[in-house]
């Protein structure tokens, strides 16, 4: 397992538009990547699409709008968004504070866009993003046919629906809430078909896997590779987590 603090990772500058703090790098996983994406105040971000990954954004601070395809969503802390593969999207930031969200990437295949790391990816695309934000970018290629594109999703209250993002609506990912009551130890968990990225929303606890035990607190990001066995334990606090799953096999 990998446990990371959301503000202590490598920081990547994207042409002065936004800053990504790397939490889980593509070089460490089969099909997953996680970061904290921070957009500067008053920004109209680059409209762009990804043809080899789908994404989820969990807003942690700031307000603004996120456009996914034809839909525009007003967003604030606690909102979760799903961006399908091939769908153009854009972040628009308010004037009071930066917009920040947990950025989850689920890759279409092990090639991972042909880039060896998150830093390598940003180095190769940052000038395209700058041109897209400035409206000077020239589109190339045919992209994904519109008939194959899935719909974006915005969930403003993640406690109101289960699962939060349904795997039936995506290519290979979903989002579920995990809540463990105080003074409790969980059963053994093991999932051979998925990688799990678990973001601690509130509470404290411990996670144990294969002889290693780590403390958990609000804001931590835990990554569990496929096939690993783990358990949660709590004392006085309820542990509330958002679990973002990347499935290793698609339905097709």
Helix percent reads under 10%
How far apart are the first and last residues' alpha carbons, in Å? 29 Å
CATH topology call of the largest domain: Jelly Rolls
User: By helix and strand content, what is the structural category?
Assistant: mainly beta
* Main sheet characteristics: 7 strands, antiparallel
Count the helices. How many?
Answer: 1
Which architecture of the largest domain would the CATH scheme give at its second level? Sandwich
Number of strands: 19
Rounded radius of gyration (Å)? 18 Å
Overall 3D form: globular
Q: Which percent band covers the strand fraction? A: 35-45%
- Biggest sheet, strands in spatial order? 2-3-4-10-5-8-11
**CATH class identity of the largest domain:** Mainly Beta
What ranges have pLDDT less than 50 throughout 5 or more consecutive residues?
A: none
Number of domains: 2
**Which series of helices and strands comes N to C?**
EEEEEEEEEEHEEEEEEEEE
Mean pLDDT score, rounded? 93
CATH superfamily (homologous) name of the largest domain: Jelly Rolls
């Amino acid at each position: 397992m990998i446990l990371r603090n959301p503000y202590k990772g490598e920081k990547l500058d994207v042409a002065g538009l936004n800053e990504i703090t790397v939490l889980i790098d593509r070089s460490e996983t089969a099909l997953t990547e996680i970061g904290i994406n921070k957009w500067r105040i008053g920004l109209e971000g680059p409209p762009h699409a990804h043809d080899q990954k789908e994404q989820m954004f969990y807003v942690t601070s700031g307000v603004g709008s996120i456009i996914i395809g034809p839909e525009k969503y007003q967003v604030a802390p606690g909102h979760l968004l799903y961006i399908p593969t091939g769908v153009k999207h854009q972040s628009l930031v308010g004037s009071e504070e930066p917009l920040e969200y947990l950025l989850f990437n689920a890759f279409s295949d092990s090639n991972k866009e042909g880039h060896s790391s998150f830093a390598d990816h940003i180095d190769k695309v940052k000038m395209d993003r700058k041109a897209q934000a400035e409206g000077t970018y020239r589109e190339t290629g045919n992209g994904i046919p519109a008939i194959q594109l899935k719909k974006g999703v915005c969930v403003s209250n993640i406690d109101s629906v289960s699962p939060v993002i349904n795997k039936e609506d995506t290519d290979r990912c979903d989002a579920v809430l995990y809540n463990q009551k105080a003074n409790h130890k969980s059963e053994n968990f093991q999932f051979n078909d998925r990688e799990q990225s678990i973001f601690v929303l509130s509470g404290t606890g411990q996670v144990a896997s294969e002889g290693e035990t780590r403390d958990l607190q609000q804001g931590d990001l835990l990554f569990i590779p496929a096939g690993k066995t783990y358990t949660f334990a709590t004392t006085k606090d309820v542990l509330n987590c958002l679990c973002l799953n990347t499935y290793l096999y698609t339905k097709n």
